[in-house]
Design goal:
alpha/beta, binds ligand TNX, 17% strand, 15 helices
């Protein structure tokens, strides 16, 4: 990642200022200035100042989260910040306290109390403590995110925050099929989304252009489908090995992000058919394609080999997946008849359950009765969808990703150099200005598991491209998923204040003209 000139200058300044007397202990951040907005914020007088004497206190069960916090605080402060089991009396401490039973906090909620001598973070377990750590980091000045020592003082505003999510599922999606993104790039994305309490990363692992996950029983999927040149316009290529995928799952889990794998079926399968011509009805391999057309390929619904293939892939993917969801795509199957589509889903949706996972698919799966126990990801532009509403009445749960609101690959406006515009131009206010709990008629909040912001990568080749499209809009979608209320003016001002944090981390966000960015 790039280290910005401003950060380097600030760093040089701090070296000369290291021995200057401490400034008055005024916080530079208001207690509620957090993204996503916490459920309850009660400012109090007083502040906590991080100094070279501060320790991070945690029992063994919470040690990993405490180490994560300390590691985040050390570069900019230059302090040792040891992680200890118990702080010696009189030592200023940030204390992590798991085992806090309070029903409404659930597994991800937390309570944060900041007094003059102590910061106390309480939660049921580590997921809640990790969420609270993200809040605490945002209560320190933006310089805390610099990679090298900065000048303090490091003041946290006093008071209490009680916080928990509105929806259980807050997701982001990354398309590895149109352009492959490396494990390191995916990890950087996990780092950034987890700061906003996003707890799922959906990986779109196969499409017409390429196949990006090793499947041992069908090895040509990746030796052919993941070869160099299988990205859009013949650029890039690559795939995740099983070892690389497992490493990503572990990395994400340490940040309380669950990886959701997607194999797109029965359309979007040209790359699989290039590798295995028996997956077409006539047995003839189609030409490889790296253009961006959609809806032209289909598995052969009447052939048994189709279901052997699908079951092998689902079995191997399920074995790689500790999380509950396995996404089987299902979108834009324009080359599959409606009857064939339903036939296919009636066989395939139960296969996901056979391997112990909850089936998740694009909202077209709602056409199949077997979607009753599945999760449908709504990507439509309309606020009416009778098929989805009917499925919801039968029990289907929904994750909201309306393409004209939540798609991070849509251009911000006509001048955006990257991205597409088929669904809409999506400025920050558009991404923020809808309610996932009431967006589609017949899909009440009780049927909505949450929200997800997909990032399709037809036009996105490198991490800089991903960051420019995802940020700041991902913060808007994350707030819709987490926070109980929606307030554009409040969001706008918290987002503007957040900008220097991205800059200090080298994240190249889009400086939307709708926001008054702090420098
Ligand atoms: C539609 S929306 C697609 C993807 C494209 C995307 C580009 C959906 C479920 N499928 O195949 O990449 O548009 O915005």
């Amino acid at each position: 990642m790039r280290i910005r000139l401003a950060a380097l200058l600030a760093c040089a300044l701090s070296l000369t200022a290291a021995s200057a007397p401490a400034e008055a202990a005024r916080p530079s951040v208001a207690l509620g200035s957090v993204l996503p907005a916490p459920a309850e914020v009660r400012p109090a007088g007083g502040t906590f100042q991080l100094t070279r004497r501060t320790v991070v206190e945690a029992p063994p069960a919470a040690r990993a989260v405490a180490e994560h916090l300390a590691a985040a605080l050390r570069p900019a402060t230059g302090y040792r910040l040891p992680v200890v089991g118990r702080a010696p009396a009189g030592t200023p401490a940030i204390s992590l306290e798991p085992g806090h039973a309070e029903a409404r906090l659930g597994t991800e909620g937390y309570r944060l109390r900041v007094t003059g001598t102590r910061v106390t973070l309480r939660a049921r377990g580590n997921a809640g403590l990790f969420a609270g750590v993200q809040t605490l980091l945002q209560l320190l000045p933006p310089a805390i995110d610099a990679a090298a020592p900065q000048r303090g003082p490091w003041i946290v505003p006093g008071g209490d925050i009680t916080d928990y999510p509105r929806f259980a599922y807050r997701g982001a999606m990354l398309d590895l099929a149109r352009h492959f993104h490396t494990p390191d790039e995916i990890k950087r994305y996990v780092d950034e989304i987890s700061r906003f309490k996003v707890n799922h990363l959906h990986l779109h692992l196969s499409d017409d252009q390429g196949w990006r996950i090793q499947i041992d029983s069908w090895p040509r999927l990746t030796t052919v489908g993941g070869a160099p040149g299988t990205g859009v316009d013949g650029t890039g290529g690559g795939f995740l090995t099983k070892a690389g995928y497992r490493d990503l799952v572990r990395y994400a889990a340490a940040r309380y992000v669950t990886i959701v794998p997607e194999i797109d079926l029965p359309g979007h399968v040209n790359a699989a058919q290039v590798a295995y011509p028996e997956l077409t009805c006539d047995g003839v391999a189609p030409p490889p394609r790296t253009d961006t057309a959609v809806g032209y390929s289909s598995l052969c619904i009447g052939k048994e080999v189709t279901y052997r293939f699908v079951e092998d892939v689902i079995r191997e993917l399920a074995a790689l997946t500790p999380g509950p969801y396995l996404h089987i795509g299902g979108d834009e199957a324009h080359a599959t008849s409606d009857a064939d589509y339903v036939t296919f889903q009636e066989r395939v949706l139960p296969l996901v359950a056979k391997y112990g996972k909850t089936a998740y698919g694009w909202n077209e799966i709602a056409k199949a009765p077997a979607a009753r126990t599945a999760v449908a990801q709504y990507w439509g532009l309309s606020t009416e969808n009778a098929t989805l509403a009917a499925a919801v009445a039968r029990g289907t749960k929904v994750i909201m990703s309306p393409a004209n609101r939540a798609y991070l690959d849509m251009k911000y406006d006509p001048s955006t150099p990257l991205g597409l515009s088929w669904a809409a131009y999506i400025e920050v206010a558009d991404a923020y200005g809808w309610d996932p709990g009431t967006h589609v008629s017949g899909v009440p909040e009780s049927a909505v598991l949450g929200v997800e912001a997909p990032l399709w990568s037809e036009t996105l080749r490198k991490l800089d491209d991903i960051e420019f499209m995802a940020f700041p809009r991902l913060a808007a979608i994350a707030e819709l998923g987490w926070s109980p209320a929606r307030d554009w003016e409040s969001f706008r001002s918290r987002l503007g204040a957040y900008g220097p944090r991205w800059t200090n981390r080298g994240v190249g966000f889009y400086p939307s003209p709708q926001i008054g960015w702090a420098h």
